[in-house]
Amino acid sequence: MKPRKPFFIITIDTEGDNLWSKPREITTQNALYLPRFQELCERFGFKPTWLTNYEMAKSDTYVDFAKDVLERNAGEVGMHLHAWNNPPIKVLTDNDYKYHPYLIEYPDQIMREKIHVITDILETTFSCKMKSHRAGRWSFDLRYASMLLEEGYKVDCSVTPHVSWRNNFGDPVQNGGTDYSQFPEESYIISKDSLKKTSREGLLEVPMTIMILREWLSSFFPRSILMKTPLKRYVERLMPPVWLRPNGRNLHQMLWILELAKARNLEYVEFMLHSSEFMPNGSPNFPNESSIEKLYVDLEELFVIASERFQGVTLSEFAEWKLGQ
Fold first, then answer.
1. The Cα angle at residue 237 between residues 232 and 240, in degrees rounded to 5
2. What are all long-range contacts of 237-240, with beta carbons under 8 Å and residues at least 24 apart?
3. How far apart are CA 52 and CA 245, in angstroms?
């Protein structure tokens, strides 16, 4: 049964300050900047899912903020796992804070222990069951999905359709990240046999909203022409996939995504950002106060349109609706 309006899902990777800079000492000052975004979401009827990692779960400022969100049912706390500093600490490379190894690069038992520890910390801290999850650095596999089910998770959002992380390395002697280039764009229950195939029961996957611009070009050129191999490669090279993720320069692309989602009658769109991107100098894309103000101008325009066409839900609320179908 189709909902009255499609869903607008906001997911925030809630983690330490500017992890792109590979700090050895991780700070969590970005927690001070989160209420402004939460207030913006509430003004438009949206409910963020704060996917929380280890250092943020240990931040008193963030914990107080998130408890208030939960008490008012104005959002959700889920789990986000960065393997290199999530207990139990197991050294994998000669400098894990430089290489940021993926959880899937560790032995199974260490994977399982790390998932259990952060889940227990979050559930104890916030007095609620953790149901939603996103893998650190987007790297995921079937073992990981199975371990999440063991801990009682219902939904994951690690898949980035049309995007391969194979050339983004964690441990430099292993195989790089997960290749999602041929994965579905819409939600599905992960099969026990394949991460990109569907099943009747199991962990719900809600892929990040990422679209390819050849969908837009198809309004001007026949799809049969665009899909011819040489032209397809040329288009993909010049027009990489676009995300429902602000970078300070892509408002028009995000608005195009909302238009295409409406035209395709999609069940949901999924927005994401990192918590440190709400703080000046907390990320490469938003290095100063003026860039943050520009971000909020873009968010305001995006949310005005989104609130007219979509209804806000948390990730686990979407999962409850979808699994109930």
1. 100
2. 239/212, 239/213, 239/214
3. 18
On whether the CB atoms of residues 162 and 241 are closer than 8 A, the answer is yes
7-209+244-324 carries CATH number 3.40.50.2000: no
Other C-beta atoms lying within 10 Å of the C-beta of residue 101? 24
- The pLDDT tens digits of the residues spanning 207-236 come to 999 998 755 555 555 555 555 656 555 555
Does this model's pTM top 0.85? My answer is yes
For residue 199, give the H/E element and its range: none
Q: For residue 177, give the nearest of 272, 103, 283 by alpha carbon.
A: 103
Domain ranges of the chain: 7-209+244-324, 213-240
Q: Going by DSSP bridges, is the β-strand pair 188-189/155-156 parallel, antiparallel, or unpaired?
A: unpaired
Q: Is 279 within 8 Å of 287 (Cβ atoms)? A: no
Question: Which contiguous run of DSSP H or E holds residue 126?
Answer: helix 108-126
